[in-house]
Amino acid sequence: MAARSHTLHDQCKFYRFAKGDVQASHASLGRPDMPDDIEATGNTLWIKFVSDASVNKAGFAASFFKERDECADSNGGCQQQCVNTLGSFKCGCYPGYELSRDGVTCEAACGGYVTTSDGEITSPNWPREYPTNKQCIWQIVAPPQHKITIEFDKFELEGNEVCKYDYVAVRSGFTDDSIFHGKFCGTELPPVITSTNNEMSIKFNSDDTVAKRGFRIRFTSDRDECAVENGGCMHMCVNTVGSYTCNCRNGYVLHSNGHGCKEAGCEHSITSHMGEITSPNWPNKYPSRKDCTWHVSTTAGHMVKLVFNEFELESQPDCAYDHLEIYDGADATAAILGRYCGSKRPTPIVASTNHMFVKFFSDASVQKRGFSASHTTG
């Protein structure tokens, strides 16, 4: 019942509205302002108006109509909860579930704010196919000076070269400018990912077409020993689950104490398909009186390519002082491909065989930053 107009005595002790069945003992709903809409709790509504012998007012006008409880019949067709409203109804879900796009069925809720130190995250409806048109974001937070590591042990999403449709995206942090670890789809297991800080976000998105089984992720948080004074390492500290390790820059080897670094020998034999070659003590100035060599080799039938990222040596027109020499073979008896010095970065160099020999020399005087070069095979 809805009141359309209402003017009664201010004290409101001369009239009453009641709801329920036809018993006069039910609660009074009267008040001096316009009453709210009144809905009976049953199928009857009792109304009583009283006026005394003194003041007269315009009174009231109210509209009434019968409202069917749609939820009374088969729960309104709702899978879990049905909420009756005036003239209609709506479906709801139990805690831990959310309403599907059809407005009737419920599906497991996804995403959320996670503060546990370890656990499991799965795609909606796991291990069955995930729903279409779904977006879930999990925000994992570890204590300060901790990092979060996730490992996928099951992964099956709709595949596309650029992961345009269904995908999982991982960031260290909760904003769009946080460090981005990658976007993954298809059936190949993504790599183990460790956050750069104590926050990680995992975003799952599915489009309106193909649905697959989804994914299962196991996550752990671990104290980052490298966050305090570099873990005591002289050069580089690498955090691992439950511990850490110290590494040294190119040209140095780890001291027996596991933390310090000492200068290594200067003859290198490299067989990896790709990697980096740097001058001794890079990225700091190289020492004087160094004579270093790198023999880079790969599988027969392939060629070695060297691309310089940075280059700064002592300059001299004939490169008679500090210089870098590159040979088209396994040692310095092979044909020379070039001799370089100064600050002009050499162009990419490709050997004609599966061997390349690189030789660096520094004299007793001027020292510069040196060089950094990437080697690949093709």
Radius of gyration based on Cα positions: 38 Å
Give me the number of helical elements.
Answer: 0
| CATH class assignment of the largest domain | Mainly Beta
- Any idea what the CATH superfamily of the largest domain is called? Spermadhesin, CUB domain
**Mean of pLDDT:** 87
Query: Topology as H/E string?
Result: EEEEEEEEEEEEEEEEEEEEEEEEEEEEEE
Task: Write out key terms for the chains shown.
mainly beta, 378 residues, 30 strands, Jelly Rolls, 4 domains, five-stranded mixed beta sheet, Laminin
Structure report:
This protein folds into 4 domains: 70-108, Laminin (Ribbon); 112-223, Jelly Rolls (Sandwich); 225-263, Laminin, CATH 2.10.25.10; 267-377, Jelly Rolls (Sandwich). 0% of the residues lie in helices and 42% in strands. It contains no helices and 30 strands. It has a 5-stranded mixed beta sheet with strand order 9-11-16-13-14, with no helix packed on it. The protein is elongated, with a radius of gyration of 38 Å. It comes from Ciona savignyi (Pacific transparent sea squirt). One of its GO terms (biological process) is proteolysis.
Concise structural overview:
The protein has strands at 2-7, 16-17, 47-48, 59-63, 81-85, 88-92, 97-99, 106-108, 112-114, 118-122, 134-141, 146-156, 167-172, 179-184, 193-194, 199-206, 214-223, 236-240, 243-247, 252-254, 261-263, 267-270, 275-278, 290-297, 304-312, 323-327, 336-340, 349-350, 355-362, 370-377.
